[in-house]
Write a structure and sequence with these properties.
Elements (H helix, E strand, L loop, with lengths): L2 H17 L1 H4 L3 H18 L1 H7 L2 H10 L9 H39 L4 H6 L5 H19 L1 H15 L3 H20 L6 H8 L5 H25 L24 H25 L3 H21 L11 H4 L5 H19 L2 H12 L3 H11 L5 H11 L13 H12 L9 H10 L3 H7 L1 H18 L2
Helix pairs in contact: 1-3, 1-16, 3-16, 6-13, 6-14, 6-16, 8-9, 8-10, 8-12, 9-10, 9-21, 10-12, 10-20, 10-21, 11-19, 12-20, 12-23, 13-14, 16-19, 17-19, 18-20, 19-20, 20-23
């Protein structure tokens, strides 16, 4: 059986197992890494076939990289060199995305541990349920564009737990935050891993993404928020609750210090696309710079404090809280896609899809619906491999297809609670049942998705 058949079968099987994580009781990161290793081992054992299937441009780049001693090598030695070269080249491109994700997670962990997000909690004054729906929705919407949708839902759920201790009352707000976070994540280059992939690969630019997707994203969040708000009676109020933290912070972390830390963290992430555009600085370098500033600042404050709790706020301790499994999951998926690229499987898939569905915008809509079941990172990474960036036409930079795909792939994950990392996270934090979300929020997410797609096609297609 040809590699162009074997590798896609392994990839699709892996994606299905990732979607069934709760049923097979195996972490999706373990599945992802296993899939990646298996695919690259198969490439290693079939290098002669890989060389015949490789794109001529890739082979030409390889031969230029080894000009001096290539003629004296045996075929097996050349194959070994080629395998090492494509593996290192693939990992080099993937690692920049992973470094960005890891550094962003570290920044969010520092801010959370040092109470910076208490600023948001204290800023929410309303206790009227209808008003709170809108406040929570739009704080989530804009915060996810800066911090990323996954980090944002974690923060929002923590905020909601302090404002609404009753889980049954809190559940609609928590579920709505999934839709709002994914809507907010789609219009920012750093709002979701999929948009980060598209932006870092230069498929879309930050100004174009923001100006073309913020209106569809607002449509996506506004209609579900309106329906949820109308489900509450006018004037229906929350019971009075205390906002006193269950885990008091050291005295040096005053409200002013918390505000400064939050401002530094947000400014760091907001400036990433600016510095990338102005100075062509890699995104991960911008985030690492902000991480270093926060790291030094918070560690020095903790070191000068006599409070025994301060030691737990040092970054050396906080690193143990980072979700490394998520980083490994992205590594496995992205490297698996790179394996598919090496044998031209994605080109074959693209040609087949173009024959069946010639309209790129329809392809984007279908992929968005698929992202409610399958992981959107894998879908977008595979799509980028299927449709290489072109100088002109439907697949050039900032084309309607790539822009619309950014919207569909992120927001389509809201249709089912298992369709996005933010949904799965809220599902675990709040113990939301699949059936509860399917009955009460899937229809709202579909309404928002259709409205957002219609807004984009109406104004920008």
């Amino acid at each position: 059986m040809s590699l162009t058949v074997i590798l896609p079968i392994i990839f699709l099987t892996g994606i299905i197992l990732i979607a069934l994580e709760d049923f097979i009781k195996v972490n999706k990161a373990a599945v992802s890494v296993s899939m990646c290793v298996l695919m690259w081992v198969i490439l290693l054992t079939h290098m002669k076939e890989v060389i015949t299937l490789s794109h001529p441009a890739i082979l030409e780049a390889f031969y230029k990289a080894w000009p001096s001693d290539m003629a004296q090598m045996s075929n097996s030695e050349v194959a070994g060199k080629y395998f090492g070269w494509i593996l290192e080249s693939s990992l080099g491109g993937v690692s920049s995305t992973l470094l960005f994700v890891l550094a962003s997670m570290a920044i969010v962990e520092i801010l959370d541990a040092n109470g910076a997000f208490n600023v948001i909690t204290n800023a929410i004054r309303t206790r009227e349920k209808r008003a709170l729906v809108w406040v929570v929705s739009f704080i989530t919407f804009f915060l996810s564009a800066i911090l990323g949708n996954l980090a944002t839902v974690i923060i929002i759920v923590a905020v909601l737990r302090r404002i609404i201790p009753d889980r049954d009352v809190r559940l609609p707000f928590s579920c709505l935050s999934i839709i709002a976070a994914n809507a907010g994540g789609c219009w920012s280059p750093i709002g979701d891993v999929t948009t980060l992939l598209l932006w870092s690969a230069k498929n879309i630019s930050a100004p174009h993404q923001v100006t073309h997707l913020i209106l569809p994203a607002l449509a996506m969040v506004s209609l579900p928020a309106l329906i949820v708000s109308l489900s509450f009676k006018k004037g229906d109020m929350l019971a009075g609750v205390s906002l006193q933290s269950e885990h008091p912070l050291p005295a040096y972390l005053t409200d002013k210090v918390q505000s400064i830390l939050l401002a530094i963290g947000i400014l760091t992430l907001v400036m990433v696309p600016v510095f990338q555009t102005w100075f062509n600085m890699p995104p991960y370098m911008c985030v690492l710079c902000g991480l270093a500033i926060l790291w030094i600042l918070t560690d020095r404050m903790a070191s000068h404090s006599n409070d025994p709790r301060a030691g737990d706020l040092k970054m050396s301790h906080l690193f143990s809280h980072l979700d490394i499994a998520t980083v490994l999951f992205f590594l496995g998926v992205l490297m698996s896609v790179e394996a598919l690229k090496q044998v031209g499987s994605l080109t074959v898939m693209a040609n087949a899809m173009n024959s069946a569905i010639p309209e790129p915008n329809i392809i984007a809509i279908i992929l968005g619906v698929c992202s409610s079941v399958l992981d959107n990172v894998a879908l977008v990474a595979a799509t980028m491999g299927m449709y290489p960036l072109a100088q002109t036409g439907a697949y050039m930079a900032d084309s309607s297809f790539w822009t619309f795909l950014a919207f569909c792939a992120v927001t389509g994950g809201s249709i089912l609670i298992i369709g996005s990392a933010s949904g799965v996270t809220v599902m675990g934090l709040e113990k939301v049942k699949f059936g509860y979300y399917l009955k009460k929020f899937t229809p709202l997410a579909i309404i928002g998705y259709v409205a957002g797609c219609a807004a984009y096609l109406l104004f920008f297609s």
